[in-house]
Amino acid sequence: MSPSSSGSSPAALVTGGTRGIGRTIAARLALAGYRVLTCGRKDPGDLPEGVAFHRADVREPQEAAALVAAAVDAFGRLDLAVNNAGGGPPVPAATASANLVTAVVRLNLLAPFFVAQAANAVMQAQDTGGLIVNIGSVSALRPAPGTAAYAAAKGGLEVLTRALALEWAPRVRVNTVTAGVVRTSDNEAHYGDEAALAAVAATVPLGRMATPDDIADAVLLLASPLAGYITGTSLLVDGGGQVPRFLDATAAAAPPAPPQ
Fold this sequence. Notes:
Blueprint: E1 11-14, H1 20-31, E2 35-40, E3 51-55, H2 61-75, E4 80-83, H3 98-123, E5 130-137, H4 148-168, E6 172-179, H5 187-191, H6 194-202, H7 212-223, E7 234-237, H8 245-253
Parallel strand pairs: 1-2, 1-4, 2-3, 4-5, 5-6, 6-7
Helix pairs in contact: 1-7, 2-3, 3-4
């Protein structure tokens, strides 16, 4: 945790922090001593202790700027901005509508850009600068069928991170947490039942899917003094990746071992 020059608790903004991974990140930052503001298009009605809410659609540049302004109004400063809001339904690229593609790119690439621009303007004027963390996805590195728009947007987010880190150093650091397969309440709708989730977990070298806490841990690491010289990089949090499918194919095709 990076203290402010005034000695008060540092301030953080987490987009899309009303549910899922974002909610866990916001809660963990609050437990770590941050004053936290999160946002969403609908008021969730309940939030973790120490987390405040501001209604905003960060796909709109004016609302993204107003969100950052609300954080500064509430806390007097902004030390950390986490661009967590994102996602998109699986849709075959051949039939994806123009509206869907545009919406996915706006949420996963343009919204982080808008929030980062507003946050940087505040952080550049602070004596201790600040940190921007973008929550990325391994889809940027190994896209799956049906994720063309989402993967392209997350790939752009990886490049955006490196570009902003170059332009905004040394006052502001910018990094990405690139998340692997994360177990959340939405998983069954995407992967299937418990047996299917177990099969997915078995493809990960560490033997399990990530949890939202694993992603929050990575954010806290990048926000700590231990990461003070890290910028323009991606912290891959994927349990070692996934076992290549060709190994299953070659194992299935291999002749049986001779009897002993």
